[in-house]
Prior knowledge:
With 212 residues, the chain is an alpha/beta fold. The chain has helices at 16-32, 80-94, 100-106, 119-124, 127-130, 147-162, 181-193, and strands spanning 47-48, 59-67, 70-77, 111-112, 170-175, 200-201, 204-205. Strand 5 (170-175), helix 7 and strand 6 form a beta-alpha-beta unit. The longest helix has 17 residues, at 16-32.
Amino acid sequence: MAKLKMSKKAASIDMTAMCDVAFLLLTFFILTATAKQPEPLPVQTPASTVLTKLPETGLVTITVGRSNVGQSVFFGMKDRDVRAQTLELMGEKYGVKFTPDEVAQFSLIEDFGVPVSGLKQLIAMKNDKRNKSGVQPGIPIDSTNNELKDWIMYCRKANNIDLAKEKELDFAIKGDAKQQYPQIRKIMDMLQDQDINNFALVTGLRAKPKTN
């Protein structure tokens, strides 16, 4: 019996639905993505072969480096609610009244380096001007005026008491590779004075040495 030959026809697939899904996913990722904020005090961290990722939330970073106004210390908090509550506590401590709009605007600033007396002026600046070199002189850490100690104390209070979060804040020190050790040691002592004995040192990644 002769075999019947089936005619071959080109198959067509409607890709409309797939394109719709792709564009929906692309739109979602664009709208939910967080742009990396420029650092007001960029530092070149020392290299290390240890790779430990810092937490995305509940992190406080103390940056130590040199700017065109000299040696500077900056303070940063990852969580917006912690930033807002800490600002209000610092305002009460130093007698500076911040409006709700100023508190809301401050909660968007991840890192800063000005005395409490200059925070209102900093908050009023646009982001591009705020991050220009030399605009922020750093947070005072002198023996007679140690505002950094208060920022550390009140951010922990905001996290644990006022915001009733179960997890303690994590602390990290980010120092320039050329930074002298006594300044870093001063920050470490300040943390340990407040019973913060576990903290990270931010470093860059370098390749492990080859072994024969």
